[in-house]
Amino acid sequence: IYKQWYQRRVRGQVTGYAEYLKLGTTVTLSGDLEIAKNMTSDSNSDTEEVAETETKHSSKRRSAVSDLGKKKAFKAYPLTVEVVVPCDEGVHAKVLFTYLTKLKVVTVSISLMITTASPWRDKFSVGTDYMSSRELLCALWPGDHGDECPNPETPTILNKYSLPTKTKIPNSLGRPFLWAQRLAGITSWGSHDTTLDLATSRNTVARFLDAIKQRCLARLSLKYQLRILASNKTVKEGAIPQPTLLTEVVSWKEVQVESVGEEYPARVTQQISDKDTLYEVISKRGKTSCKGLVVLSLDYPTTPPFTVLQITSPSGTATARNDENVRAIEEELNVHVEELYGENVEYLLTKVVSRMCMCLDVYVEGKGLEPQIKFFINKFRGPENVLPYVYNVEKQYIMWKNNISSIDRSSMGIFIVLNLILSLSHDVNILTMLCCYIIIKFG
After folding, report:
1. pLDDT digits over 153-193, tens only?
2. Quick check: 175 and 144 in contact, CB under 8 A?
3. Among 39, 142, 197, 305, which is least packed, fewest CB within 10 Å?
4. What are the b/e assignments for 87-112, b being 16+ CB within 10 Å?
């Protein structure tokens, strides 16, 4: 089974797709082939050795049993598969696959290689730790974090080696992601054998190559954005069409969920996962400041940033709970974030921060907290005096998202009423009053 998996399944499948897609992917089989050929099942002798250690040296028995048990239970096959995936100019992801013979699962680890000729080299300082395997591999498939061993027999196997059932696979061996099992063609586990399916492996390879490439580029872009934001600036690649901004980012820092204060709703903080990363951004315009909590998921930008705001001005503190305008801004950042997808999607975080700054400009100018330099169409709406937060690039003014369509619907309704009135009466005064209303209402 081991030889089939390494020599026929993964190596053959990935190489075939690399040639077909002409991606330049390379696949290498490493390790001692002679040891692999002569390798036989030694599970009984391993178990006996652990049991023998358990009866000796009672003072150090517990640690000795644990160390030996881990060494035996997490024993790796002598051969490993290394897949090098080109992601960008001078950027390669080196993915290492290892098979654990006792647990009968495939583990994965990854490292990112950036050559000196790569444009990305200028965006990071020398010696930068680009990112961990966790950032590059977790949630590569939705919900697959590689935390649990997918083999249902794992607790039984660990017990054989006197290990707690929740013992984790050492980080040095990688993580047993479900997608890695599918890539190997492993579809189920039995007490004595595993089931291999060539079709499952074939169907997973293309998605694996694309997912690795997209994740590496997204994480590189994110690291670059975070470094620039830490200096209170934004990257030019994330620029979006918007008016001249007077709001500036004055602070950007990573925070822990435990340090998040009561200024953010509990319903939001309680839903934050331990795998999410939190950042606090503060932007300012005059005497008004906006503090935002930005939540980034591991699969960013597939899952967009989630933002919660608090605006502090001379007139008080406003949140989505007590100010409809703050709620409208959060809606622009969270609900209508799909408008920011498209070109340079990797720089989605910068786009969100830029839109937040634009919305704060609108907020302070519309509220009269700072001099108004932007042109508004229908400045306020509703009893709560909600401001528009959409920038019309062609006309260069601030408008409502449904401004044009609402005018068309209103006009159509008015003309229907007009025709009804004219059919019932030829009174010129009524017609004149109605026309004046239209001019006053819609300009």
Report:
1. 999 999 999 899 889 999 999 999 999 999 988 888 876 66
2. no
3. 142
4. beeebbbebbbbbbbbbbbbbbbbeb
E runs forming strands in 174-276: 186-189, 194-196, 248-255
405 burial (CB, 10 Å; 0-12 / 13-18 / 19+) is: exposed
In sequence order, which residues have a C-beta less than 8 Å from that of residue 319 and are 6 or more positions away?
A: 263, 265, 309, 310, 311, 326
pTM score, whole prediction: 0.78
Contact 114, 91 (CB under 8 A): yes
Name 398's bridge partners: 376, 391
pLDDT of residue 384: 74
pLDDT top residue among 130 and 209: 209
Per-residue confidence (pLDDT) for residue 43, from 0 to 100? 45
Q: CA dihedral defined by 346, 215, 139, 13, rounded to 10 degrees?
A: 150
For residue 250, which of 356, 127, 408 has the smallest C-alpha distance? Answer: 356
DSSP at 376: B
Report phi then psi at 336, rounded to 5: -100, 25
Are 125 and 166 in contact by the 8 Å Cβ rule? The answer is no
- Tracing tokens 């040891």 back to the chain, one arrives at 35
Residues 243 and 355: their CA atoms lie apart, in Å, by 10
User: Rounded CA gap, 113 and 95, in Å?
Assistant: 11
Query: How is residue 196 written in tokens?
Result: 């291999």
Six token digits for residue 302: 């597939």
| Strand-pair partners of 310 | 291
Whole-number Å distance between alpha carbons of 62 and 274: 31
**Per DSSP, which regions of 270-327 are E strands?**
277-285, 288-296, 306-313, 316-318
CA separation for the pair 174, 54 (Å, rounded): 28
Place of tokens 């204060």: 261
Q: Distances from the Cα of 117 to the Cαs of 114, 128, 346, in angstroms?
A: 8, 16, 21
Length of the chain: 443
